[in-house]
Write a structure and sequence with these properties.
31 helices; binds adenosine-5'-triphosphate; six-stranded parallel sheet; 5 domains; binds magnesium ion; about 45% helix; Rossmann fold; single chain
Length: about 775
């Protein structure tokens, strides 16, 4: 055991760690060690002899939980840390529901529907009810239902709530209640829960079954919640119910970082903690250990402008640090190029690694330009969120088969697999089946399984009947196989028998190859899962266990093994994380703050908190970038710098390139003329929060002190060096394969031998200039 671990805490942190009995709340600024307090507190509990089994810790991501576990393992020994219950609300309560959901009539192997499944169910409902799709938009309707669920408004409660009904009538959606009922029925019949159900049903069980509540109250004698500011009402009630017996509850959070109000997070949870637990102890943490003085002070100044916040005094003893660099791009491509060039330079000049950098942005769509710039520089990166591994089509197809094996009522899984790979079961047949299943009040699978009996009345011919029969038999066979073989063996067999692997193998395009690799990767991960679980004492190598991990992987849970890469993610996903160098990109009006969020003060304040979260991720250096034009919604639009930039005092800022002409704007087709289009000082003054200050773009140049090593971007040597030697022995005219762009022909070689670039024309991707030191090329024909 690590000795004197309490010495690694400052005074208030140590007190919060040692106050293990009774309610405790820590509300403190970013980087002040809240998460560290929780980690050490758990270690301390274990060290005092509390059984790991009795500790529940709720984190924002599963990754955060794993990291905490690891850290706790260092302090108290790994074996002790293993049986801790840690994870997101969704993953912890999904685990409990596996045991308890049958109380509500769900199968214990219930499926978890992700957003895509939910949208598909909703689209069907809206179609079947013949509703106007422009008024009843599937995602919007689901958003509304999510609100209901997170506030524990069940279908029945909705129908008894005149105010809600009237609100929906006014919103031109009088059928909302019927849709809600149809959606809940449909999920229930499929034996499926969506994400909000995981919390709603947990609440339902804890309320309706006192003996179950008592069981978990006994079990979780010590409860901890990180990022408490972002818990919604449903989560709040679960915690409250579980903690109400022992009240050994410790919540930590920061009201200034509450960024999920749009999803129902409720800052009042923090404020009412004192009322719920009048004896609660409060420990203010004020010292920031993460960031430089420059960053801490600038962040303090930003958040001070919000009216709704608890008073805090955050300071740091860290070095003063560099000013925040601001860069103005001519286009999103130029902005991205600047960022990539800075990463490149800092890696070399400061011996930093790719993983030391994070690029944060407001919307996922911004990653495209950034990715392109990083690729051009040969910088390794990974994108969190967006289309995660498990959302890819080929993976979802495989997973749908797996889901069907454990829950044959899972209608979404059935619809996804019934004719993929193609087995001649057409859309008309499927529509007939859906109607008939509904008429006979049986699940789609039962219908397909007994199709011979129903076929004549439904109007399905003999050929199709055989096909449906074969499909059902195949699924049944795997279900049986699952009883005697491990999960990996069954899924491997399934991938082969269904022809799924073959279908992918036939496609030899680079995309096809990568799809096949993805499926292989999935099979590998199943194998890894089976082996890992078999080694654990209370291991669960079941298919449902595996599927649960997949369904609940949050966007921030990136499982990539080789993690030495530049991190790209939205600010929302960056919560709780820290990186030596952080770029905040796209600081423009209508982007950050988002266009949707500038109408009320409350919305704007949430955007400002988001900005505060972004800046406070940085340890050593922060950059803020914006662009005067950007490719959005299919066209180039002009942009103004974000009002947030104006809100930071000049003492903290270093405006990088105001007096440096930006060299070019390559593929954006823009020229320096754009400078003339920027907003006037006048338009700034008109803004609500505007400080009396000139347009930042027209600041006196005396303010601009480019760092000595600052170079204008995009100066590449273009001396032709086609005949020179290079590492690969590459020559003009050779045919090569690139792992991303596929097959191509070398057109030209440029630059110094040790920094050579190749111009390659790719069959599918067109002409690219690649840095040979980084591009992974294979010569296939000289
Ligand atoms: N007493 C301490 N001594 C040394 N380092 C510390 C101390 N307290 C915290 N740190 C370090 O400071 C950094 C920030 O801590 P932590 O992530 O726990 O802050 P936080 O309050 O949870 O931040 P956030 O609000 O962003 O979630 C971490 O790297 C942590 O290890
Ligand atoms: Mg934290």
């Amino acid at each position: 055991m690590e000795e004197n671990y309490l010495d690694k805490l400052n005074e208030p942190q140590r007190l919060a760690v040692e106050a293990t009995e009774g309610p405790v709340m820590v509300i403190a600024g970013a980087g002040s060690g809240k998460t560290r307090v929780l980690t050490y507190r758990i270690a301390h509990l274990l060290n005092k002899g509390v059984d790991a089994f009795n500790i529940l810790s709720l984190t924002f991501t599963n990754k955060a939980a794993r990291e905490m576990k690891e850290r706790i393992g260092y302090v108290v020994g790994e074996s002790n840390a293993k049986s801790l219950w840690m994870g997101t609300f969704h993953s912890v309560f999904a685990r409990i529901l596996r045991v308890e959901a049958p109380l509500l009539g769900y199968p214990s192997d219930f499926t978890i529907y992700d957003q895509q499944d939910a949208v598909s169910v909703m689209t069907k409902i809206i179609n079947e009810m013949n509703l106007d799709k422009d008024i009843y938009k599937a995602k919007q309707v689901l958003g509304r239902i999510s609100q209901f669920k997170n506030n524990l408004i069940t279908v029945r409660a909705y129908h008894n709530n005149q105010a809600l009904i009237e609100a929906d009538n006014e919103a031109m959606k009088p059928r909302m209640g019927d849709i809600y009922r149809a959606y809940v029925d449909r999920c229930f019949k499929s034996g499926a829960m969506d994400f909000d159900d995981l919390l709603l049903r947990t609440n339902e069980i804890l309320t309706r079954f006192p003996e179950v509540l008592a069981k978990y109250q006994e079990r979780f004698k010590y409860i901890m919640v990180d990022e408490y500011q972002d818990t919604n009402h449903s989560q709040y009630l679960i915690v409250k119910a579980l903690a109400s017996r022992y009240e050994n509850l410790c919540v930590v959070g920061d009201d200034a970082q509450s960024i999920y109000a749009f999803r129902g997070a409720n800052i009042r949870n923090i404020l009412s903690f004192k009322q719920d637990y009048p004896d609660a102890k409060l420990y203010p943490l004020e010292q920031n250990y993460r960031s430089t003085q420059m960053i801490v002070e600038a962040a303090n100044q930003i958040i001070k402008q919000n009216q709704d916040q608890l008073e805090k005094n955050v300071w740091t003893a860290n070095e003063s640090g560099e000013k925040i660099a601001i860069y103005r791009g001519l286009s999103d491509a130029d902005e991205a190029r600047f960022i990539a060039s800075q990463i490149w330079e800092r890696q070399i000049s400061e011996h930093l690694q790719p993983k030391d950098f994070a690029i944060l942005y407001r919307t996922n769509a911004q990653s495209r330009a950034l990715e392109e710039a990083l690729r051009k520089r040969g910088i390794q990166y990974r994108v969190f969120g967006g289309t995660s591994f498990y959302q890819r089509k080929e993976i979802k197809d495989m997973v749908a088969y797996m889901r069907l094996l454990i829950n044959q009522n899972d209608e979404e899984a059935l619809l996804r697999t019934i004719n993929y790979p193609a087995r001649g079961i057409g859309q008309t047949t499927i529509s007939k089946l859906l109607v008939a299943a509904d008429q006979h009040q049986i699940s789609l699978f039962s219908l397909v399984e007994n199709i011979a009996m129903y076929a004549p009345t439904i109007g399905i011919n003999a050929g199709t009947t055989t096909k449906l029969n074969n499909y059902a038999l195949m699924i049944k066979r795997f279900q049986v196989m699952l009883k005697s073989h491990d999960v990996y063996e069954v899924t491997m067999e399934m991938a082969k028998t269904t022809q799924l692997l073959n279908a992918l193998k036939e496609d030899s395009t680079p995309e096809g190859v990568s799809r096949l690799e993805n499926v292989q990767e999935l099979l590998n991960s199943i194998q890894g899962y089976v082996e890992e679980q078999q080694q654990l004492e209370d291991g669960d190598a079941s298919l449902s266990g595996f599927l649960e991990n997949i369904a609940l992987a949050t966007d921030a849970d990136n499982e990539e093994e080789d993690d030495n890469k530049v991190n790209l993610m939205t600010v929302h996903l960056a919560k709780g994380l820290e990186f030596p160098i952080v770029f905040i990109a796209g600081l423009e009006e209508n982007l950050f703050p988002s266009m949707m969020s500038v109408n009320t003060r409350a919305e704007l304040e949430e955007e400002r908190r988001l900005f505060y979260v972004a800046l406070t991720r940085a340890e050593k250096v922060a950059y803020m970038t914006y662009s005067v034009s950007r490719f959005r919604w299919g066209k180039i639009i002009d942009c103004e710098p974000s009002r947030f930039l104006e809100e930071i005092d000049d003492d903290f800022l270093d405006w990088k390139n105001l007096n440096i002409p930006v060299r070019n704007s390559n593929n954006s087709g823009l020229s320096a003329d754009l400078f003339g289009d920027e907003p006037s000082a006048e338009s700034y003054k008109q803004r609500e929060k505007s400080v009396a200050r000139p347009n930042p773009n027209q600041r006196p140049s005396g303010n601009v002190q480019p760092r000595p090593n600052f170079k204008p971007v995009n100066q590449t040597s273009s001396s032709s060096a086609g005949s020179q030697e290079n590492a690969l022995g590459l020559k003009v005219g050779q045919v090569v394969v690139h792992d991303r762009f596929g097959r191509g022909v070398v057109r030209d070689l440029q630059g110094e031998p040790n920094d050579m670039k190749a111009i390659i024309h790719f069959d599918n991707a067109g002409e690219k200039k690649l840095l040979l030191n980084f591009a992974k090329l294979k010569i296939i024909r000289s």
